[in-house]
Design a protein that fits this description.
The protein is an alpha/beta fold and about 250 residues long. Helix content is about 35%, strand content about 15%. It has helices at about 15-30, 45-50, 80-85, 95-100, 105-115, 130-135, 135-145, 175-190, 215, 235-245; strands at about 5-10, 35-40, 55-60, 85-90, 120-125, 160, 200-205, 225. Helix 7 runs parallel beside helix 8 (about 175-190). The chain is globular. It binds 2-phosphoglycolic acid (PGA).
């Protein structure tokens, strides 16, 4: 069975004071076997998170470069993220694909870089509104997942996050039926690449909030959530962690 994960992606939000609030929260958390709670703050806050979070709250990064080191102004290597004690790296978020031109092949290379330095890539996939309207969501997901088909990635150290682009930041998450259908499809695609597809955590992302998490946490093939807005407040984030914890 896949472990449960609740990951907060702060995007370009959050300040030092916010890290302090989450550090306080981390000290009150119980370490729950089979549930990872993760905060992915902006890069400059990783050091503070490393030195102040209790180990019950894991640290993740929002991106990494595919190369080990070199002349890449503004980029961050996976090796440095490992030194910052990151356990996870969000890879191929739709905002990276949209605003930074990240291609599926770049996503593949970044995922391998993260794994090479002992971190777990959370590979984000998801169709946009037009693709859903045109009935192309399966083809889109299939293409995005195909980067894993060459067998180079370690399936034992991988997370896939389904984030329909139209639900991100919209305030309304996708319908239960759409999520169930998409996650079953993703699982079936992964089953063609590995025998252990059931162990790969599948997260849903897109307007997950305290008031819609309870049902989400009980849907088939939903092993957790990748959360933007609702991960910025300790009170909201803790409710999401509790909801998934209650399913164990
Ligand atoms: P949201 O963002 O929860 O604010 O919709 C999710 C994401 O982009 O990961």
């Amino acid at each position: 069975m896949a472990k449960k994960i609740v990951a907060g992606n702060w995007k370009m939000n959050g300040m030092s004071d916010d890290i302090q609030l989450f550090a306080d929260y981390s000290k009150s958390m119980n370490v729950v076997d089979q549930l990872d709670a993760v905060i992915c703050p902006p890069f400059p806050l990783l050091g503070q998170a490393r030195s102040s979070f209790h180990e019950s709250l894991l640290i993740g990064a929002q991106d990494c470069h595919h190369d080990v080191a070199g002349a890449y102004t503004g980029d961050i290597s996976a090796q440095l993220l490992q030194q910052m004690c990151c356990s996870y790296v969000v890879i191929g978020h739709s905002e990276r694909r949209q605003y930074h031109g990240e291609t599926n092949d770049m996503v593949r290379q970044k995922a391998l870089a993260a794994q090479n330095f002992g971190m777990t890539p959370m590979i984000c996939i998801g169709e946009n509104f037009d693709q859903r309207q045109a009935g192309e969501w399966q083809a889109t997901l299939q293409e995005q997942l195909n980067i894993l088909a060459d067998g180079k990635v370690d399936f034992a150290n991988l997370v896939v996050a389904y984030e329909p682009v139209w639900a991100i930041g919209s305030g309304a998450r996708a319908e239960n039926s759409d999520i169930i259908e998409a996650h079953a499809f993703i699982r079936s695609q992964l089953a063609q690449m590995t025998d252990n597809e059931g162990d790969i955590p599948l997260l849903y992302g897109g307007s997950v909030k305290p008031d819609n998490v309870a049902e989400l946490s009980r849907l088939a093939n939903v092993d957790g959530a990748l959360v933007g807005g609702a991960s910025l407040k300790v009170g909201d984030f803790s409710q999401l962690v509790e909801a998934f914890g209650a399913t164990l």
